[in-house]
Amino acid sequence: MSSGRLKIFISSVQKEFAEERRAVKDFITHDPLLRRFISSVFLFEDIPAVDRKPDDIYLNEVELCDIYLGIFGNTYGWRNSNKKSATELEFDQATRTDRERLIFVKGNDDGDREPEMAKLVRKAERQLTRRRFSDTPGLIREVYASLVISLENRGHLRSRPFDDTVCEGATLRDVDNKAVTAFIETAEDAGRLKLKGSRAPKAVLRNFNLLRDDRPTNAAMLLFGKNPRRFFNNTQVHCFHFYGTEKRKPIASQQPYEGRLIEVIDEAVEFVLGKIDRSVGTRSKGAQVPVAFEIPRSVILEAIVNAVAHRDYRSNGFVQVIVFADRMEVWNPGELPSGLTPDLLREPHGPMPRNPLIAEPLYRVKYVEKAGTGTTDMIADCRKAGLPEPDFEQHGPHFVVTLWRDWLTEAVLAEYELNDRQKRAIRFLKVHGRITNSMYQKEFSVAKRTASIDLSDLVDFGLIKKIGTTGRGVYYRLSKGARKGQKGR
């Protein structure tokens, strides 16, 4: 990526967006603010016909840009020999080469789109936030807002990050000195703080750059404020527990947590641990009785900490932690930093905290790491526990982490040739834990013979396990893991 002024590549189906493409380029190149930081806007149609290049060389233009600006509509466009459009090839190239990607989708009815374009829109939505527009002026507004945010994130526009901004109306009297002292003690016990000099709360806050002209920053109030809600109305973590695998009433339980971030994190983690299964060991290896949760506590903590530490606090949204019968989800307002994609989270990467002044104290108390290993540790811990890897996806304005409670995910079930009753039976077992032949008959309105065949197939597939041999005491429950080499018919 260039170190000077930025280059933008505009990607779309040319015929569908001829007017919009030209309008966007003209706006960017003539806007007094944007043209200070953007040197060029690339449009394919601006290249003379005699100079137009083959696709493989042409895609190199994407790699030469700093920002990929995609405009998606209803038409998928021309397809190459592999049946991929130029727009999708350009999007994939921008993804592979870690370009910053800004996506703008026309219209709200995805049913009007060609199937391939609808699929491309969904692929983009899983990776980053997309903005919708209805007309050319609306597109220009969304492009301008997105580019201003990009320039701020790159440091070209000198506005202070949220966590480093003075908390409006707050003074040192709004800081809970006991919370600061407790933080020091916890960080020292964790071995990540050797405090030299004054241990006075004001000195500690200054040491962690949480004061600006002796006034508390937003980070200071979120971490150590007596009453953070007095200054912020969007910092709650809302926890929900649903009986089944979908958001459906009645809600089993729900609890909003608010207050200082470390306390909120602990409360949200305990909420989840209270809803999932656990196994208790023996004292054979020590005085402490070991407790193992079906999702490792370290993974739950990492998911919630990441959401709280890296969320976009300028958004009016709030963090949601949702426990379902088969998984838990953490919804975080915002998106990944520029250059970081969901796929890259599965590989070693450097730390890119959105709120570094919040992340630093959390590191000192061992809630986060500085090495950028949090997501790869989550993957490793899930594998060790015999669980599927976490899912990392962008859903509109939220970044979502999904942790699976068992191995029978939708992707796994898709590998088996199950009928609709059998799929519903798996969902039934995730909620209720067990099923008998008679329950199967009643639940799915089938004869005993059909129930027996369906259940026998599920046993043969290794998806469920038969408990008992004959008689009324026989029932079925989910298997704990796949049989080696076991596949659907």
Give your account of this protein's structure:
33% of the residues are buried. The chain contains 18 helices and 17 strands. Helix 1 packs across helix 7 (136-153). Strands 9-8-12-13-15-14 form a six-stranded mixed β-sheet, covered by helices on one side. The chain has a five-stranded parallel β-sheet with strand order 2-1-3-4-5, sandwiched between helices. A hairpin with an 8-residue loop joins strand 8 and strand 9 (251-257). The chain folds into four domains: 6-153, Rossmann fold, CATH 3.40.50.10140; 162-230, no CATH class; 237-404, Heat Shock Protein 90; 410-478, Arc Repressor Mutant, subunit A (Orthogonal Bundle). It is 37% helix and 17% strand. The chain has 489 residues and is α/β, with parallel strands linked by helices.
Poorly predicted regions are 483-489
Number of strands: 17
Instruction: Tell me the span between the first and last alpha carbons.
Output: 49 Å
Shape: flat
The CATH class of the largest domain is Alpha Beta
What's the architecture of the largest domain, going by CATH?
Answer: 2-Layer Sandwich
Largest sheet: 6 strands, mixed
Helix % is: 25-40%
Structural class: alpha/beta
Q: Helix count, per DSSP? A: 18
Strand content: 15-25%
Strand order of the largest sheet: 9-8-12-13-15-14
Task: Provide the gyration radius in Å.
Answer: 26 Å
- What is the name of the CATH topology of the largest domain? Heat Shock Protein 90
Number of structural domains:
4
Mean pLDDT: 87
